[in-house]
Amino acid sequence: MNVLTDNFALYGKGFLGTVELTVYASLLALVLGFLMASFRVAPVGSLRVFGTVWVTVLRNTPLTLLFFAVLLGLPRFGIVLPFQLFAVLALGCYTSAFICEALRSGINTVPTGQGEAARSLGMTFGQTLGAVVLPQAFRSVIPPVGSTLIALAKNSAIAGSFSVTELLGTYKTLNELGYSIVWSFIWIAVGYLIVTLSISALFNVLEKRWGVAR
User: Fold this and answer.
1) How far is Cα 57 from Cα 211, in angstroms, rounded to an integer?
2) Rg of the chain, C-alpha, whole Å
3) What would the DSSP string read from start to end of 116-151?
4) Rounded to a whole number, what is the largest CA-CA distance in the chain?
5) How far is CA 86 from the centre of its chain?
6) Taking a C-beta distance cutoff of 8 angstroms, is the pair 100, 36 a contact?
7) Which of 89, 92, 196, 204 is most exposed, with the fewest beta carbons within 10 Å of its own?
8) C-alpha span between 92 and 77 (Å, rounded)
């Protein structure tokens, strides 16, 4: 216990850093994922192509490589931001590709006749998507979206290698101070467990309230 009690402030700072990364990157991933899913089912060909390229590139790019591209590449183009914001961009964009595919799979479960009926009533594509299709699709994609955000929380550990304050990065300081590396990682694992179980509990509540009954 002394590893935790003697370094509670350090663990607390790392834990809050992981929570902030997870929250901000999740919000970005959900917004971009919704946007790309809309593009992928849009009647405009150029939007479908853009959405497909976005998903294909990001899903097949290692996250560590994406971190290098964002944190080291963007400053070369004059885009200088705090490292934490760069990490949020990398995590959020990467995860948005998986959110997009989860949402698109949910959209595909909605009978096409409902969209056709909405359009026959004079509704635009945006109105059909927002008022008819997405509310039904949302119910079926709660579990996969929850799993994707849990993966995002664990992927945030990569940010510690790029000078971003987060939970896993605390082991370097603890190792330098001579604490047991085993117990250091055990308490780090407990911190990640708290984050992931909190996300799981939230989506369990959402699924019980709005999920599709099976």
Assistant:
1) 31
2) 20
3) HHHHHTT--HHHHIIIIIHHHHHHHHHHHHHHHHHH
4) 71
5) 14
6) yes
7) 204
8) 20
Nearest partner of 16 among 207, 118, 156, 177, judged by Cα = 156
| Residue type present at position 178 | G
* pLDDT tens readout for residues 15-53: 888 999 999 999 999 999 999 998 998 888 899 999 999
DSSP letter string over 55-111? HHHHHTS-HHHHHHIIIIIGGGGT----HHHHHHHHHHHHHHHHHHHHHHHHHHTS-
Residue type at position 145: V
Number of Cβ within 10 Å of residue 52's Cβ equals 14
First-to-last CA distance in the chain? Answer: 44
Amino acid at 198: S
Give the pLDDT score at 213: 53
For position 194, what pLDDT does the model report?
A: 93
Q: Give the position of tokens 């330098």.
A: 176
What distance lies between CA 161 and its chain's CA centroid? 19
CATH superfamily of 8-210: MetI-like (1.10.3720.10)
Q: How far apart are CA 202 and CA 208, in angstroms?
A: 10
Tokens matching residue 87: 């990490």
User: What pLDDT score was predicted for residue 117?
Assistant: 78
pTM: 0.86
Where the chain has pLDDT below 70, the residues are 1-8, 171, 175-180, 211-214
